[in-house]
Design goal:
The complex is a heterodimer. Chain A is mainly α. Chain A has two domains: 39-171, Orthogonal Bundle (Cytochrome Bc1 Complex, Chain D, domain 2); 180-316, Cytochrome Bc1 Complex, Chain D, domain 2. Chain A has helices at 2-21, 39-50, 62-65, 112-121, 130-138, 141-150, 160-171, 180-185, 194-203, 236-240, 272-280, 305-316; strands at 221-225, 249-251. Chain A has a two-stranded antiparallel sheet. In chain A, helix 2 packs across helix 7 and helix 11 (272-280) crosses helix 12 (305-316). By secondary structure, chain B is mostly beta strands. In chain B, the strands form five sheets. Chain B has a twelve-stranded parallel β-sheet, with helices on one face. Chain B is globular, with a radius of gyration of 23 Å. The chains are: A mainly alpha, B mainly beta. The A-B interface holds A 8, 12, 16, 20, 22-25, 27, 185, 201-202, 204-208, 211-212, 215-216, 221-226, 240, 242, 244-245, 248, 285, 291-292, 295-297, 299, 301-303 and B 9-11, 38-39, 53, 55-59, 82-83, 86-90, 103-105, 108, 110-112, 126-128, 131, 133-134, 204-206, 230, 232-234, 275, 278-279, 281.
């Protein structure tokens, strides 16, 4: 008799915890962008993600640059591609890419599926020939079976398009929304230390104006903006050909940001303290960057060194890797899986 | 029996919890009171000096300053603290404070639904005095804001705002409505600012439009103070001597304002400059379908800023840069106009405004579905600034529907006399044709009022009696 009531009691407890104490900082996440992941596609995508079979030479996997132990970045200033070739930009995290309307620093693509093709096909990255990739995968029985199951309703289950759909399904499971900040937002006051709470207040101040671009709950914004990192990279302007958009880049998420050093599109700032310092001095103002390439909200502001440290402390409270996937011991191709370095 | 059991389990029984009342005495800490405050709490603060920066994350908090003659509580940042108040809990109410000497901002609300700021005296609080952003259902009334380096009263990326009966002077911008839909700006006095009232759409925002604002019955006088804003920011480029300026916003009505002695332009319509618009391609930079009617314009444009002379060929009571579509102005014979000649509003048909993705409120003239009156035991119409009927009686469990049949925005809000309590009745802002419904459970007498029109005796003290 009582057993039947248990779920109701549980619901009531949940409801009272949520309704009684949640703060105004608790905001619903937007719906996932694109195709919702199925379990089978995400599982297949995970194997593909770690499998160097995707690269023509069998040496690079997605995980080489997007390392789970570094919050899906590589710890480098700018990424390294095939044979260590230098690539122009800092590797962005994959956490919460599921909520992004546009991807890449220059916002050039609108879906994870399209995005996956970029490193797959780029000559200085995986340099894959699409036909040979499909042939390689079809030769591996486990992939044949998994594609057939994951895309059962489709005549051609194993295709380049479905490789990208499986990768995207996996990426859409990389959701980070249980940080200590989220617990605080849900009403658990002790989840943040006093210094972190002061940092959160600074984050929302009209003095620093951080919150206006790094918005709740994703701590990003669907915008291209210039902050004035001195760099020859044309950013969004390089895609649109529009001179006014030179030097603009997408606003990155701050979720798990403490785990993704170094920072900015070119990895030029080594620590979060350096990033706060950059903005405190007015971003690109005074660094020789033309004024019209810097957003009008990026202006010098005065905060004490102690306050700057509190801001950094708050950013540390945005870490949550609870949905981190297991790294497979082996992948269907039998190629070696990149040995992940232990966390620093 | 079943109901009692459920009630014992905490479901289906609405026992009105006693409101938590906290009192802060001079020398005490408001922040400490906020730490203890539960949703619904009213924090009363005695006159005194409070050197604090307040953060309000708990929903439904009221900060009520106790005003005794000239005495009121003062939040003083002494030039060292960043912001007076940051609020994220919904709704948020603040009345009766002075706020001064902060580095960033006076009172800001971020993502709040239901912002009620009344009788605040704000001076020298950095970039902004009052700053609701990414919020909705906002009311800023009876505030005095001075010596602000950007906008004294700003509303940004928001939906539904009333800015009324405020007094703003010696700021860079008096009132700024930015990338916001459905704002009503009325009965304000703006003088000796660099610019009086701005209705703008600016680049680099998530909400990329501003529509259907009404600016009416304001006094906008002698806004000739040299710009003391940050010269590197957009606000620093604002020329002095501007009364009312529309830039990039659509479907704005500017009506029955007194606009005098602004040295550059009394009322102006312009597009967002190409250099700014190009950075945000989805943004539509033109000011379209503005209607300028029945304003009293006098002695504006007598000593214009050089940039105005360059763009418009001189100063005047009214200036248009000739861009945008569907703009019109009815100007009196004596009004001096500069720039492009603008059609009279009689000659411009009023096309229904297209609804943007965020335009939840219907605009006047647009075809709206008839309001849903099904199941109503009583219907109260609001028209001619009255509730008709003013008193109704229904049985427990029955539903009352209120219908706004008036040309003004109204709310149905619980409250006694002129004091809103927001429970159990708390409608959003209702424009013409919109309805609000509520089903009453317990027997009793429920008094309500209209927030934007608390100053009208006919718009408060109305009741619903629930009796078996």
């Amino acid at each position: 008799m009582l057993a039947g009531w248990r779920p109701i009691f549980a619901l009531m407890l949940l409801a009272s915890a949520a309704l009684g104490a949640a703060t105004g900082l608790l905001r619903p996440f937007p719906p996932l962008v694109g195709e919702p992941p199925t379990a089978e596609r995400a599982a297949l995508g995970r194997l593909l993600f770690f499998d160097p079979v995707l690269s023509e030479a069998g040496t690079l996997s997605c995980a080489h640059c997007h390392q789970p132990t570094r919050a899906f970045t590589d710890g480098l200033g700018t990424a390294r591609g095939r044979g260590g070739r230098p690539l122009p930009r800092n590797t962005p995290t994959l956490w919460n890419v599921a909520f992004k309307q546009r991807l890449m620093w220059d916002r050039r693509v609108g879906s994870l599926e399209e995005q996956a093709l970029i490193p797959l096909l780029a000559a200085d990255e995986m340099a894959t020939d699409p036909e040979r990739l499909v042939t390689r995968l079809a030769a591996i029985p486990e992939y044949r079976e998994r594609f057939a199951r994951a895309f059962a309703s489709e005549a051609l289950a194993l295709s380049l398009a479905n490789v990208t759909r499986a990768l995207a399904a996996f990426e859409r499971t990389l959701v980070s929304q249980r940080s200590r900040f989220d617990r605080y937002a849900g009403g658990e006051r002790a989840a943040l230390t006093p210094a972190e709470r002061r940092g959160l207040t600074l984050f929302r101040s009209l003095n620093t104006r951080c919150f206006e671009c790094h918005r709740l709950p994703t701590f990003e914004a669907p915008l291209a903006l210039g902050v004035g990192v001195p760099s020859p990279d044309p950013g969004v302007g390089g895609v649109s050909g529009e001179p006014a958009e030179r030097g603009l880049f997408g606003v990155p998420t701050l979720r798990n940001v403490a785990l993704t050093a170094p920072y900015m599109h070119d990895g030029s700032l080594p620590t979060l303290a350096a990033v706060v310092d950059f903005y405190r001095r007015g971003g690109g103002h005074g660094l020789g960057v033309p004024r019209d390439r810097i957003d009008s909200q990026v202006r010098p502001f005065e905060i004490s060194d102690a306050e700057a440290a509190e801001l950094v402390a708050f950013l540390g409270a945005l870490s949550d890797e609870s949905a981190s996937p297991a790294i497979p011991e082996q992948v269907p191709s039998g190629l070696p899986v990149l040995r992940m370095e232990a966390k620093p | 029996m079943r109901r009692m059991l459920l009630c014992a389990l905490g479901i289906l029984c609405t026992v009105p919890a006693a409101a938590q009342n906290l009192r802060v005495r001079s020398g005490g800490s408001i922040a400490a009171a906020l730490e203890q405050a539960k949703p619904g709490a009213v924090i009363e603060v005695e006159p005194g000096l409070y050197h604090e920066a307040l953060v309000v994350d708990t929903p439904n908090i009221t900060l009520r300053g106790i005003v005794r003659g000239p005495e009121r509580p003062v939040l003083d940042g002494r030039g060292t603290l960043n912001d007076g108040v940051i609020a994220s809990g919904s709704p948020f109410t603040m009345t009766g404070f002075a706020v001064r000497h902060y580095k960033g901002n006076g009172v800001s609300t971020q993502g709040v639904d239901g912002v009620f700021l009344t009788d605040l005296v704000i001076d020298d609080t950095g970039l902004y005095g009052v700053y609701p952003v990414q919020s909705k259902n906002i009311s800023v009334t009876h505030c005095t804001v001075t010596r602000i380096r950007d906008a004294a009263i700003y509303v940004g990326e928001s939906q539904g705002a009333l800015v009324a009966h405020n007094y703003v002077h010696h700021n860079v911008a008096g009132i700024e409505i930015e990338n916001t839909n459905d704002a009503e700006v009325r009965g304000n006095l703006a003088h000796d600012n660099t610019a009086g009232i701005l209705v703008f759409v600016l680049p680099g925002k998530v909400l990329k439009e501003g529509r259907r604002s009404r600016v009416h019955d304001n006094w906008v006088v002698k806004n000739n103070t040299p710009n003391f804003g940050d010269p590197e920011a957009i606000v620093g480029q604002l020329p002095f001597g501007i009364g009312i300026l529309l830039m990039g916003a659509d479907d704005t009505v500017v009506e029955s304002n007194q606009v005098r002695e602004n040295a550059s332009l009394g009322i102006a319509i312009t597009r967002l400059a190409e250099e700014h618009a190009k950075k945000d391609p989805p943004l539509e930079p033109m000011t379209d379908r503005a209607r300028i009617v029945a304003n009293h314009l006098d002695a504006n444009g007598t000593a214009p800023h050089p940039s105005i002379t360059e763009s418009y060929g001189g100063g005047g009571d009214f200036g248009w840069d000739g861009t945008g579509s569907g703009n019109c102005a009815d100007l009196s014979d004596g009004a001096r106009t500069v720039g492009a000649p603008i059609p009279a509003c009689l000659e411009v048909a009023t096309a229904p405004a297209p609804h943007g993705p965020h335009g939840a409120m219907p605009s006047a003239g647009a075809a709206t579905p008839p309001p849903d009156l099904t199941g109503a035991a009583a219907v109260v119409r609001i028209r001619g600034m009255r509730f008709e009927p003013r008193h109704v009686t229904v049985k427990p469990g029955q539903t009352v529907v209120w219908l706004n049949d008036d040309n003004l925005v109204h709310t149905i809000t619980s409250g006694s006399g002129t004091q809103p309590s927001h429970a159990p009745l708390s409608s959003s802002f209702l424009t013409r044709g919109q309805a609000f419904r509520h089903s009453f459970g317990e027997a009793g007498k429920y008094e309500y009022l209209c927030l934007p029109h608390l100053d009208q005796a006919t718009m408060r003290g109305a009741t619903v009696t629930v009796a078996k």
